[in-house]
Amino acid sequence: MLPVIALIGRPNVGKSTLFNRLTRSRDALVADFPGLTRDRQYGFGKVGPVPYLVVDTGGVAGGETGLSELMVQQTVRALKEADIAIVIVDGRSGLTAADERVAQLARQYAETTWLVANKAEGMDPSMAAVEFHGLGLGEPVAISAAHGDRVSALMDEVLAPFVEPDAAPEAHESHHESHHESQHASQESRADQPLRVAVIGRPNVGKSTLINRLLGEDRLVVYDQPGTTRDSIAVPFERDGRSYVLVDTAGVRRKGKVSDTVEKFSVIKALQAMERAEVVLMVLDAQEGITEQDVSLTGLIVERGRALVVVANKWDGLDPDHRRQVREQIERRLPFLDFAERLTISALHGSGVGDLLPAAEHAYSAAVRDLPTSDLTRELQNAVRAHEPPMVRGRRIRLRYAHQGGRNPPVIVIHGNQTERVPEAYRRYLINRFRKAFRLMGTPVRLTFKTSDNPFQGRRNKLTPRQERKRKRLIKHVKR
Length: 480
Description:
36% helix; Rossmann fold; six-stranded mixed β-sheet; alpha/beta
């Protein structure tokens, strides 16, 4: 088992910066803004002699009420999961009451504790750490997470108990390489890989509540306040022998309503999570109905070609007339989602939630389906016989054969003549034919048209010698 390291501390001491340094990634949001991280964020560590898991946590500010209390609960959970707790303090700001509260949690719940004085770049290490001996957590280690100063030396000491006595560093490196090679080999089969599902929607539509319901535990902070989730949190789990990664994202609002820099970063992370996902669960608030932002966001999902399941949350408690109005709104305002399965659920009470993962599986299966060229061409010919393409400038558009050009989303390449003039209505007709014939529900379908080259284009007609003499005489006559 990989050792687990939890990073804890008061707000804005550099926990997320150290997390990114230890994972050599940018998975955790970093900004000069206290309280940015609110949920536990997991990553695979890549600094030190052995591999490990590192957990980023929200800041503990003391005087916990409301949302801050929930963040402390997340920190306690991380400490209980971890083998090692790294307590981070600010070497420039000095000791505070919040630092003492963090030290108290570490003494109460952590198995092994290391005290780190961050932001010590340009300072004498002993001077940066001297004030923190009073926390009673051992000798403080002065580092700079932003610049990487003394981070490698810290991890060598932290991970020393987990290094096998007869294992040399070269052996660990070869183990890393063989591990990554085996991972790469396993990626050859889609069935062996976890299905990555991103949960997208406006703020406060119930995304975190939904993921907690699927997991069966309070894994994510849930609070009756829009914008509680600020980062994209990936949560791996298994259900019936199938591996999944659920990605909780920050609520996406209209650009004009996104004022502060932190929320702009959160929106970017949400859209990046959507881009990396195989399936997107688009969560709507049934009590509020369909808004302009819902329309824009679902349009972006379809444009990026993601497999999609539309989820109307907060369905419980709605009267029949309100439910009918919501269904009519979806039909009227989201007509381009006719391919996506639509589910009505209550994340809070659990009704309908059991249908989500099977729907995601069906959508992903359609998105990566293999489409044989012979079957595509046969269906194209059947479609043309049933409804021929229109005439353009007195000539009929000819569509000859089709083949698959990509997956997730399925791309169908159609070859013929004058294909650049195929009307949009006929494109939709062909997409519906292919979708019905190959059961491509749950995923957008892309059509690409290619016009066959004219073998005579650019070639002058060759004339016989007699025809050439006749052409010249005609030109002379015209000139006279």
